[in-house]
Amino acid sequence: MDNQNMEHSELSLNEQQAIRREKLLELQSAGKDPYHEVKYDVTTYSKTIKENFEAWEGKDVFLAGRLMSRRDMGKANFIDVMDSLGRIQCYVRVDDVGEESFADFKKFDIGDIVGLAGFVFKTRRGEISVHAKSICLLSKALTVLPEKFHGLKDTDSRYRMRYVDLIMNEDARDTFRKRSIIISGIRSFLDQRGYMEVETPVLHTIAGGASARPFITHHNTLDMDLFLRIALELHLKRLIVGGFDKVYEIGRVFRNEGMSTRHNPEFTLLELYEAYTDFNGMMDITEALIQHVAQTACGTMQIRYGDVELDLGKPFARLSMVDAVKQYAGVDFDTIITLDEARSIANERHIEYEEHHLKGDILNLFFEAYVEEKLIQPTFITHHPVEISPLAKRCPHDPAYTERFELFVVGREHANAFSELNDPIDQRGRFERQAQLRAAGDEEANDVDEDFLLALEYGMPPTGGLGIGIDRLVMLLTNSPSIRDVLLFPTMKPLD
């Protein structure tokens, strides 16, 4: 245990913080205020040196980062400095940096931000290190870093103070680096296939594009209520009408609903639309996209999530919702003709439904109760009932169902896609059905979007559309059990 850690064990947190403030005042009185430093010319990073030691050995480097540990041997110290890419050991000796600078260095605290110039070498024990020629204080840490910040008891603190979590938890840093790689991989995949990235409004006059309860805000100048978007869909399809054949957006959407390990009130959604294709084309692109980002971010398509080994490299299974319910619940909805028959079998199986639910709604309730959690390996569930798919095109062979799929992995929905409804008359009828549900108290139902209906009347080509929840995909590819583990700043209730 180094001297500072011994000091930490003997002094209270308030006493340690008081000592740090005294050190700051001494520095400021001596004209060495660390907060006056404005730049430091960094030439390389810890990871770069470690991965290319032969190229860097003996060369001068300038590093900057956080002082994370110290082994004090009197006139020489070994310290660990953490920069944005990792940690590296540094050797600081009085004979090299000078007595005044070394005396200042001895007063540095764990957590301080330092700049260090020196040359790269390897210790007798074989550890790649930097031999300091100079070291300076770039910023003073007035609050003490925790000794342990990653235990299960501290998950709430990790989410509230993500900045400390990132300092102390290498796994957290790796997760968010991988998140960035995943999003970059999605963009490169789509850009290479001729998709154009666009941006659409966050503030909507009508809540639409998904079944969800919206957040409501007020615009003072216009004196009107607006909705934070719950989906990207309706504006993106307007662009298909306008003549852009392939568009996508990666953006935040907001849903005023419950919170869980899989749900946060704001989350990141990818939606893409392609003219002249259908939901089968969207299945192909979904499979290829997920395989691409898995290989890019993880280096393999065989990944582990919890106790499950997943093979994303195989063709994803495809199963209709009716066949899935028949397989897992033993109920064949192809033989159920009337609403009364659907309600009767629901009563027998203790499936709770509401008065406004129709046959298709009850089929979906059976799917949620009997099937979802059993879909572990990637599986496309296709042909959803029209009652739960207000924006999807009907199946030509059976208009009670739609050309829609959802992708399930480890029992969770990861993607939702349609052959997009481009019939403005059919779309109006479905919007009006949704408006009736909303008037009856269903806060998740859509309103009638007259401008979108007008856009459809100008003519939208046959189109395939896809939505993928980025956060759930990151959870899957980083083996993260909670959505809060993959959001830098998840929504939290204030402590007060």
Protein architecture, described:
This protein has 496 residues and is an alpha+beta fold. It has two domains: 3-145, Nucleic acid-binding proteins (OB fold (Dihydrolipoamide Acetyltransferase, E2P)); 166-316 and 378-485, Bira Bifunctional Protein, Domain 2 (BirA Bifunctional Protein, domain 2), CATH 3.30.930. The protein has 17 helices and 20 strands. It has helices at residues 3-10, 13-29, 46-51, 53-56, 94-97, 99-106, 155-160, 162-168, 170-192, 233-241, 279-298, 321-329, 339-348, 359-370, 424-439, 450-457, 470-478; strands spanning 60-72, 76-83, 86-93, 113-122, 128-139, 196-197, 203-204, 216-219, 224-228, 246-254, 266-275, 302-305, 308-311, 317-320, 379-382, 394-395, 398-402, 404-409, 412-419, 463-469. Strands 6-10-11-20-19-18-15-14 form an eight-stranded mixed beta sheet, sandwiched between helices.
Describe how the helices and strands are arranged.
Blueprint: H1 3-10, H2 13-29, H3 46-51, H4 53-56, E1 60-72, E2 76-83, E3 86-93, H5 94-97, H6 99-106, E4 113-122, E5 128-139, H7 155-160, H8 162-168, H9 170-192, E6 196-197, E7 203-204, E8 216-219, E9 224-228, H10 233-241, E10 246-254, E11 266-275, H11 279-298, E12 302-305, E13 308-311, E14 317-320, H12 321-329, H13 339-348, H14 359-370, E15 379-382, E16 394-395, E17 398-402, E18 404-409, E19 412-419, H15 424-439, H16 450-457, E20 463-469, H17 470-478
Parallel strand pairs: 3-5, 6-10, 14-15
Antiparallel strand pairs: 1-2, 1-4, 2-3, 4-5, 7-9, 8-9, 10-11, 11-20, 12-13, 15-18, 16-17, 18-19, 19-20
Helix pairs in contact: 8-9, 9-11, 9-17, 12-14, 13-14, 15-16
